[in-house]
Amino acid sequence: MMVNQPIIMGVLNITPDSFSDGGLFLDSATAVTQAQLMVEEGAGIIDIGGESTRPGAPAVSSEDELKRVMPVIEALSGNIDVPISIDTSKPIVMKEAFSAGASIINDVNALRADGALKMAAELGADVCLMHMQGTPRTMQANPSYDNVVDDVKKFFHERIAACENAGIQLDSITIDPGFGFGKNLGHNIALLKNLSEFHDFGVSILAGLSRKSMIGALLGDKDVDSRLIGSVTAALIAAENGADIIRVHDVAETKDALTVWEQIQNFRE
Ligand code: PT1
Q1: How far apart (Å, rounded) are the C-alpha atoms in residues 206 and 105?
Q2: Cβ contacts of residue 22 below 8 Å, gap of 6+?
């Protein structure tokens, strides 16, 4: 059996406080150039978000989120050959983003907001359901689980059922354990080590580990600018454990690692 390397989702953040790109992509011309570069480097999806969801980040109004993402989606659509995902929890942002050319909803809140399930179904969207305990503002205060893998699986069981009830089919659904979203280091490691268990649902798996504090912590508290090799290593472990999509900032470096991995996997004497 031949294996394929996971699809790389390249992160294009447009938030002025985005945790590792610090407001680099506020201008849509720059954003388009950056997205095109990521596609050349091997990204198969471009993820656009106008609300930072890193630990401690404040909530953003729909108006501000739309002001950030819409010019970029409009500038991008027609200018890149890969699908655009919109990283949002708000139905109005989903709707406007799709009208401008987005085709995937990446929701860190797993379509739990009022009207989000219905909107995703109406749009005929592919959806990524991410697990988060708490909210970005407070989630790292005291994350707690009986058994993190079982608890997150239970959450997906419920959210996948809710999607199916709303008319979203299994083959349109991806699940994501939400590394760093209401999880301590041990929780994050348990989820990565046991990632393949999430295939029990018969849907695709996404892993987002890029530049996160868990990588810094594993490296003796390295800061965000020094997490590249740790992030690529974590991406490779996610691939080994069955991730179908990997969300990253450093596309070219991740692509090389996954390309080597794929060829070794498929080698037969
Ligand atoms: C993710 C993800 C995301 N992560 C999906 N979407 C972020 N599907 C935004 C830290 O611990 O993993 N999956 N959208 C970014 N969020 C974080 C969270 C950034 C935690 C940093 C940390 O440093």
Answers
A1: 13
A2: 16
CA distance 10 to 8: 6
Q: In tens digits, what is the pLDDT along the chain, a chain of 269 residues?
A: 899 999 999 999 675 644 445 444 457 888 899 999 999 999 999 999 998 888 988 889 999 999 999 999 999 998 999 999 999 999 999 999 999 999 999 999 999 999 999 999 999 999 999 999 999 999 999 999 999 999 999 999 999 999 999 999 999 999 999 999 999 999 999 999 999 999 999 999 999 999 999 999 999 999 999 999 999 999 999 999 999 999 999 999 999 999 999 999 999 98
- Among 153, 183, 247, 255, the one annotated catalytic: 247
| Residue pair 96/65 in contact by the 8 Å Cβ criterion | no
Residue positions counted in the chain? 269
Report whether 84 contacts 94 (CB < 8 A): no
Q: Are strands 43-49 and 104-107 parallel, antiparallel or unpaired?
A: unpaired
| Ligand 1 pocket, mutate which of 18, 45, 87 (most atoms under 8 A from CB) | 87
Task: Tell the residue number behind the tokens 């919109």, with chain if given.
Answer: 86
Q: Match 């990632």 to its residue by tokens.
A: 195
Chain centre to alpha carbon of residue 217? 20
Q: Residue 69 corresponds to which tokens in the numbers above?
A: 């993402």
Query: Positive or negative CA dihedral for 240, 246, 249, 254?
Result: positive
C-alpha 55 – ligand 1 centre gap (Å) = 9
Kindly give the distance from the C-alpha atom of residue 53 to the centroid of ligand 1, in angstroms, as a whole number: 6
